[in-house]
Amino acid sequence: MTLMETLPKELPSLPDLRVYLRHIGWQESPPGIAGSFWAKGGVRVGVPHDEEDDPDVVASVIQRIAMVERVPVREVADHVIYYWFDVTQLRAANDYRIISTIPLGAAATITSSARIMFRAAGTTSQRERGEIAGNCRQVAQCEIMNGKSHKY
């Protein structure tokens, strides 16, 4: 499998890579003509100033970061891509035994819990509340139940 096959189809931009590196503790050296070196733990990785985000260049930088951080290339790419997203990962109880499917009851519980979480988030987005006691906007409730999106 080649490097490009292990990466997502849409690669992150070089500015996003710089933000990610800064976030995980890399230190940027003063920039040069073509780019700047980023250092962590005595290791340096070059990140170019290339504004066109050449996929081969971005893939190469991600690969070098992954080698230094000792994580899979895909994991680094995903962390950079989803850096600005609030990602929630749901798991079924005892899913360490489950390979590709989960029991219907567990799936129903996850779906129900996710719906409640979205409802609470939608309700509190209108204004802060200390407690949500079934008192949410009807429009939001209908949209959540029907899986629809609505512009306000």
Q: What's this model, at a glance?
A:
By secondary structure, the protein is mainly α. Helices cover 46% and strands 9% of the residues.
Number of helices, counting only DSSP H or I runs of 4 residues or more: 6
Strand ordering within the main sheet = 1-2-3
Structural class, by secondary structure, is mainly alpha
Identify the overall geometry: elongated
Integer tally of domains = 2
> How many beta-strand segments?
3
Mean pLDDT: 76
Q: Percent of residues in beta strands?
A: 5-15%
Which sheet architecture does the biggest sheet show?
3 strands, antiparallel
How helix-rich are the residues, as a percent range? 40-55%
- Our measurement of the CA-to-CA distance between the termini, rounded to an integer number of angstroms, reads 46 Å
Question: Could you give the order of the helices and strands?
Answer: HHEEEHHHH
Poorly predicted regions are none
Q: How large, in whole angstroms, is the Cα Rg?
A: 21 Å
Could you characterize the architecture of this molecule?
This protein is mostly helical. The chain folds into 2 domains: 3-81, no CATH class; 95-146. Helix content is 46%, strand content 9%. It has helices at residues 3-6, 14-23, 55-69, 73-81, 104-126, 138-146, and strands at 27-28, 35-40, 43-48. Strands 1-2-3 form a 3-stranded antiparallel β-sheet. Strand 1 (27-28) and strand 2 form a beta hairpin. It is elongated. The termini are far apart.
